[in-house]
């Protein structure tokens, strides 16, 4: 039997469930994972929710169906656990665009500033930060910082600009962005809104300002999901990664969810190329081989833990 025949023959769903029992594993999936992975997961959530579950789980193994910084955060919070990531190349443009040496230099230029850093960052950058935040917790955290304290916000300038507007704080921003959320086309969204005047535009705060100012609702993945459950509209234009639409359709099967378009028709730009590296086959293989796993230097882990714990306390 050749390799292709073999991979077709594996029933990934039942094999993954079998391995889950054998390993005493918990499968955590972010909303941007492909539908089958979301459906087999024990928990599906946003970055903050998944970090909290990773911290408190009693399972021996955490299988993190998400991107590298999420699995790394799980390991920082719960170092005794074996933390597996289906594809080790599942990174994030925000984390990649903020190298620790450059971030350190940025901080040194502004020694009186408090460094609030988005969770979409490496362990090295977290270790240099004062407080970590997620899109669902950032506003609450910033509002607890004394008004006279200057702030550096990294690495997402779009989320940073949005937070400046929401909190009235004049923060210094690192110039990074998400390659998925920056591709939405304002022109095409206006066209869609004209075509479907009753559709509400709902957006993740990583989107550019031009999209956010036209949005009827802005929030983290979990908050977008809660919004469509509570709201009475029947149609939504969804300006975030397409994976979330799976949960939206499950929650509200009679409503319509239109993925926000990008300028380039040929590009499926609203699929995160990193999140979508994970597949059922890789999920199965990482559990079978207990590889790839997150390994962290203990000194680095302890330094990165402090600002994450502050986030959990303040959110
Ligand atoms: P959430 O915390 O809203 O799930 O966002 C994570 C993310 O990577 C968005 O692109
Ligand atoms: Fe990173 Fe953007 Fe992908 Fe989220 S959607 S993981 S911010 S690249």
Description:
There is one protein chain. With 315 residues, the chain is an alpha/beta fold. It folds into three domains: 3-91 and 275-296, NadA-like (Rossmann fold); 94-179 and 303-314, 3-Layer(aba) Sandwich (Rossmann fold), CATH 3.40.50; 186-259, Rossmann fold, CATH 3.40.50. Helix content is 44%, strand content 15%. The chain has helices at 3-9, 12-23, 35-40, 47-56, 68-77, 93-96, 100-109, 123-127, 138-142, 157-167, 186-195, 209-212, 221-230, 244-251, 280-289, 298-314, and strands spanning 25-30, 43-45, 61-65, 82-84, 114-118, 131-133, 151-154, 172-173, 200-203, 217-218, 235-239, 256-259. The strands form three sheets. The chain has a four-stranded parallel β-sheet with strand order 2-1-3-4, sandwiched between helices. Strands 6-5-7-8 form a four-stranded parallel β-sheet. Helix 2 packs parallel to helix 15, helix 4 (47-56) packs parallel to helix 5 and helix 5 (68-77) crosses helix 16 (298-314). The longest helix has 17 residues, at 298-314. The radius of gyration is 20 Å and the shape is globular. Bound molecules: 1,3-dihydroxyacetonephosphate (13P) and iron/sulfur cluster (SF4).
Major β-sheet annotation: 4 strands, parallel
**Ligand species:** 1,3-dihydroxyacetonephosphate, iron/sulfur cluster
Number of strand segments: 12
**Count of all domains:** 3
Q: So what's the CATH class of the largest domain?
A: Alpha Beta
DSSP helix fraction:
40-55%
Please give the alpha-carbon distance between the first and last residues. Answer: 53 Å
Poorly predicted tracts of residues? none
Reported by name, the CATH topology of the largest domain is: Rossmann fold
Q: What is the averaged pLDDT score?
A: 96
């Amino acid at each position: 039997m050749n390799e292709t025949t073999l991979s077709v023959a594996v029933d990934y769903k039942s094999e993954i469930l079998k391995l889950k029992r054998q390993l005493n594993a918990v499968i955590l999936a972010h909303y941007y994972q492909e539908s089958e992975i979301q459906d087999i997961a024990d928990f599906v959530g946003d970055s903050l929710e998944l970090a909290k579950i990773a911290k408190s789980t009693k399972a021996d193994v955490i299988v993190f169906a998400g991107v590298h910084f999420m699995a790394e955060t799980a390991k920082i919070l719960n170092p005794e656990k074996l933390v597996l990531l289906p594809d080790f190349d599942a990174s994030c443009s925000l984390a990649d665009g903020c190298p620790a040496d450059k971030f350190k230099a940025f901080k040194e230029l502004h020694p009186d500033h408090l460094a609030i850093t988005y969770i979409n960052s490496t362990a090295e950058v977290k270790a240099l930060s004062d407080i970590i935040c997620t899109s669902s917790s950032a506003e609450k955290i910033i509002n607890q910082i004394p008004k006279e304290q200057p702030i550096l916000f990294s690495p997402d300038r779009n989320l940073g600009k949005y937070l400046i507007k929401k909190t009235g704080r004049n923060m210094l921003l690192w110039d990074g962005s998400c390659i998925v959320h920056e591709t939405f086309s304002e022109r095409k969204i206006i066209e869609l809104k004209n075509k479907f005047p009753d559709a509400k535009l709902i957006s993740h705060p990583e989107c550019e300002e031009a999209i956010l100012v036209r949005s009827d609702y802005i929030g983290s993945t979990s908050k977008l999901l809660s919004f469509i459950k509570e709201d009475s509209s029947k149609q939504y234009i969804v300006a975030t990664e397409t994976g979330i639409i799976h949960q939206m359709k499950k929650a509200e099967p009679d409503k319509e969810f239109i993925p926000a378009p990008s300028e380039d028709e040929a590009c499926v730009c609203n699929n995160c190329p990193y999140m979508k590296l994970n597949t059922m086959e890789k999920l199965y293989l990482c559990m079978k081989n207990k590889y790839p796993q997150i390994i962290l230097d203990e000194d680095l882990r302890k330094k990165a833990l402090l600002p994450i714990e502050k986030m959990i306390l303040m959110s």
